[in-house]
Fold each of these.
Amino acid sequence: MNTSFHPLSELFAQLGLPHRADEIAAFIEAHHGLTVPLLDAPFWSSSQAAFLAEALAEDADWAEAVDHLDALLR
């Protein structure tokens, strides 16, 4: 397992999303209050959801950033 730390900005870039701090804050504000599992959120494309699922399933170096995003969206 790679133990690299990936900040949210890198996760957002990996997902093909705007990744400046203000853009991340706007995304979180727009989607805050998520009541479904993160992977089932309607705002992900199929490739984004697949990346997130793989990151969590493999406990990849991205898993911590994905967990952090999930917590921020709750």
Amino acid sequence: MDGPTNVFIALIVIGFPVITILYMAHRFFTFREKKLEVEAGMAAEKAAQYASRSLEMEQRLQVLEQIVTDGGVQTAAQIEALRKPRLPQGR
């Protein structure tokens, strides 16, 4: 065999597996990157849900604090105002 044939065989024997491994590694890391992006999006969505729940709870707590610190007559009126209206019971 002459020189150029040996080089060509070496490229095939060494180059093809190296290119294949690099391609597989690129695909793997692209997959991992997309997976992390999806997980980050899900975590952000959960954080937003917790924040909205926290805001709702703070508002409810403010109402309760206001009821506790107000006078007795005002407290009874506020409690009644917070109750859901009852439907009239028909006979």
Amino acid sequence: MEEKKCEFCDTVEIHEDLLNIVNELMPEETKLYDLAELFKVFGDSTRIRILFVLFESEVCVCDLAEALNMTQSAISHQLRILKQSKLVKARRDGKSIFYSLADEHVRSIINQGMEHINEE
């Protein structure tokens, strides 16, 4: 089996002008951490499936459980994570709670991810 080698520059040359630009534009460490945590939420296929259902309609936990062939408990657990990450929102109507995408950013993030994986 062939080992992949890391590529290195042939010489060490620091490009201060580029590093200064990067340092000026780099977000704060806490923002980068928050962004990484957000992408971790997208790293679960069940949560992605829930978001795809919510692309089509506002639904309650019962509908999601039926659509995804899962228990209401499992769906509720994933919805809690999605809600804490501000990806979905909830609305009570009588005895039911309906979930929907929090905003169009969620749809945009998923659509861009799909475009990326469908590139040839």
Amino acid sequence: MASRTRQFDLVAALLKAESTLALATTDEYGVAVAAPLFYISDEDLCLYWISAASTEHSKNLKREPRASVTIYRPTDNWQDILGVQMRGQVFPVRDSEHKKPLIGLYSDRFRLGGIFRQTIARSTLYKFRPHFVRYRDNSVHFGYRFDLIFAADP
């Protein structure tokens, strides 16, 4: 088993290499709802995305901020399955000093340019802080995985 630092680095590298997550929230009836979203990540394995308040997942997160995320490398070969499952807390980023550079990074990464400027201004920047991460890599061996557990917000 790799050291925790090495495990953390493997997760961080995967998050930086990929661009799309599947966000799982629950609706008002407790039914799971999934949405694909572009994201960026930071050095603490937190994920950020931009969404309109009118989306189903944004409404769900307003009511219940706990969510799950999965990110994986697309493949047609079981031996190449590589991905993460994450559980954590989601909240809007309100601090403009923190928000502005993140929106800049997000816009640059996905080459949004000026076309989406008004849409982004009307949208919310969300932060997903994981408290559980499960990393899977079938190239090591079938079913290879490790878990990282972080303190959850009180």
